[in-house]
C-alpha cells in the first residue's frame, strides 16, 4: 500500500485557462496532475471538472510561454516538458481570420490556427475554389508598407466600414474536410462557354445554395474601377529597397498561425507567392485566373513592377475592355442558361483536348537535328562617355551560343566572338511605334556581367531570335518543343503593342465615360492629360477589342509574364566579404545579385547549377554551393533568412510537379526542402 503523503508528493497543481463564452463559469481551473498523465487524459479531467455540455472536439492546449500547441495527446506531461509554472490555455484550433485577396476584397472565414500554414492555405484555397494552393501563401503587411496610410489617416475621418464577405458557414471553415469533388478533373466547368462568366452550377458540388454562388461570383469576377485617390493612399515602392519591404512579411509555412503571433480576427494578405502558375485551365480555374489577373493588375498600377509606356497602355486597354465587357455581361448573366455537363462527357472532352493539343510532335521535334538561326543583326556595345558603337555583323545562333562574323562569306572561318547564353539574363528592349526591336543580353563572366545589345530589323526576326535567347538562357535549344510556342507568344504580344489607329475609336459609345486615371499608374497620370490618356488607351484598345472576357484576363497575365522583372521577389542582403548592401532577386529558376544604387544586375546564379544550400541559424547566414566550385553566402537584412531559404526550396519543390500526379501534393517533401533545422 502507498500512503497518501507519498502519493501526494508525486502530484502537483497545474492552473489551466479555458477559452469559453459561458458567463458565470470560471475560466481558470486548477487541477492536480502527475508527470505521467498524458495530454489526452488532462483534457478529459478538465472537461469533467468544467461540467459544460458542448462539443469540445476542436479544443486543444496552447502553451503560451513556449508558443506551441500540445497536439500529441498520447504524450505525457513529462515528455512535453510541462511543469507547474506552465501556462496552458484550452482553446479552439479553428478561429476567425480576415483575408485580403489579390482583388482587394476581404473575406472572413474560420481557419486552423494549429495546422502548419502550408496546410491552412490548402484548406483556405479549397474553400475559395482555387486550385494549386502550393503557389499561394499568407503575408503580414510590414510596418514600412503601412506608414503612408497612417499619415493620411491622421488628417481624415475613419473610412466607411469595409464590405467583408463572410464565409464562416462553409464546410472547411467548420473544420470539416472539403468535398473531394472540388478538385475533380471531371467536375462541371466553372466558366460559361458562351459568356465567359462563372457558371453557378459548379458551386452546388461543394457548397450550399445561393450564398456560395454569390461568393464564387464575387471572387471570379473583376471590379477594376478604383479611384486615383484610392491609388494615392496605397503603398507604392519607389526603390528596390522599398520593393524589398513588400516581401518581408511572408509567414513561415512550417509553423502554425498561433506560433507566428497571429490572433483571432487579424487581417492577413492571401497572395500568389510563387510565380509558376501550373496547369492554368479556364475550364476549372475561374477564381484562380481572376485572382492572378488581379494580383498582376495591382502590381502594375502600384508600380511594384516596372513597364514601359507602351506596355502600360496595353495593360490599360485590357482593363478598360474588362469594364465595358462586365457592364454588358452583368445584365445577361442572370438569364444565362445553366448547362449541366455530365461527368463522363467532361472527362472525355478533357482527355480529347489532352490527346489533341498536349504533346503532339514533341518527340519528333526534340530528336531531329538542332536548327540554327543566321541573320544580319546590329551589335550595340555600350562605351564610356555614353557613346555607343553600332555595327552590323553576320550572326549565327547554334545550340545555346551566338557567334558573329564580319560578313556572311566569312562564316566558315573563326568567329570574331562566341557568346555562350546559358545562365544569361535576357531583357527585351522594344518600342513597336518607333520600330525598335532590341535584345539586351547580360552574360555571366568571372567579374560580373558582360552587357551585349542586339538590334533586329523587324518583328518576325526579333521574335525568332528573342525566343532562341530565352530558351538558351535556360539551357535549351531551338529543337525544344517550346520554341515555336515561345515565338508565337512574343509575336502575339508585339501585335497587341502595334497600335493601328482607327478613326472610329474615339466615338465608341462604350468608352465615352472611361476614366483613364483608373487604369494607369500615378506616374502616367501626372505625365499625360486625361484626354490624351483616353485617346491613347482607345488606340491600344483596337488590338484587344475582339477578345472574350476570359481571353482578355489570360492575355493580361501573359503580358505581365513577359515583363523583364516578372516573378522577381527582392530582399536587401549583405554578401559575405562585401562592405555594402546589395539586393537579391529570387525568381523561379535563378538568384540575381543587383546593385542597390543603380538597379543593374551584377551576377546571376541558376538553380539548375545549384548543388546544395543551407542556413547557419546561429548567425542567420544562407550559404549556397553551385557547380564549378562557385559558392556564395549572405545575411538577409530586410527579412528573416528563413523566408529566402523557403523561397529557394519552394521553387525547387514546384519544379517537381507533373500532370501525372498533379492532384496530390507531397507535403513531406515540401517541408523537407523548405523547413530548415533551427
From TrEMBL:
Biological process annotations from GO: cell-matrix adhesion; integrin-mediated signaling pathway
Gene3D superfamilies: Phosphatidylinositol 3-kinase Catalytic Subunit, Chain A, domain 1, Pleckstrin-homology domain (PH domain)/Phosphotyrosine-binding domain (PTB)
Gene Ontology MF term list: integrin binding
Subcellular locations according to the entry: Cell junction; Cell projection
Keywords per UniProt: Cell adhesion, Cell junction, Cell projection
Similarity comment text for this entry: Belongs to the kindlin family.
Classification via InterPro entries: Band_41_domain, FERM_2, FERM_central, Kindlin/fermitin, Kindlin_2_N, PH-like_dom_sf, PH_domain, PH_Kindlin/fermitin
SUPFAM superfamilies: PH domain-like (SSF50729), Second domain of FERM (SSF47031)
Pfam families: FERM_M (PF00373), Kindlin_2_N (PF18124)
GO annotation, cellular component aspect: cell projection; focal adhesion
Span of domain PH: 378-474
Keyword Transferase: no
PANTHER family: FERMITIN 2-RELATED, FERMITIN FAMILY HOMOLOG 1
Keyword Repeat (UniProt): no
Provenance organism: Rhodinocichla rosea
Name recorded for this polypeptide: FERM1 protein
